[in-house]
Amino acid sequence: MDNNQISQVDANKKQYIVVSIGNEQYGIDIHYVDNIVRMQKITRVPKAQAYFKGIINLRGEVVPVMSIRLKMDLPDDEFTNATRIIILKIEQHGVLGIIVDEVKEVVTLSSNEIDKMTNDVKDGKNSFINGIGKHDGQLISLLELNSIISEKEVV
Question: What domains appear along the chain, each with residue ranges and CATH number?
């Protein structure tokens, strides 16, 4: 198999980390995930947006943390033993942590298991979803990370 054939196989399949936020399951493209850490003390930053929870110190690196629940107009986070901060590395935005209620599993979805969202459904929470994945009879809303964090103002 040459490199061109390998990239076509890879292009058909993507891995997602499945997380729960509220009562729903969401998929985060594993390509963007740098780390998953337990909930820790978040230092508030004055005059930041409500969904911007503050910053954490992760091995000497200051990482901004946002509440994906508040960003999607859901009730505020309730921290439990299952709550995690997913550290994302996104080229244009650098490092960012997002709070999720629980990390479930890693799934591999091929392109025929993903229904893309149509562009005319860009209102509110739906603009944060770029597709719906089907895995083991469950629907997983696939997060469009760039639209979630693009409004994030740099502190």
Answer: 3-149 (2.40.50.180)
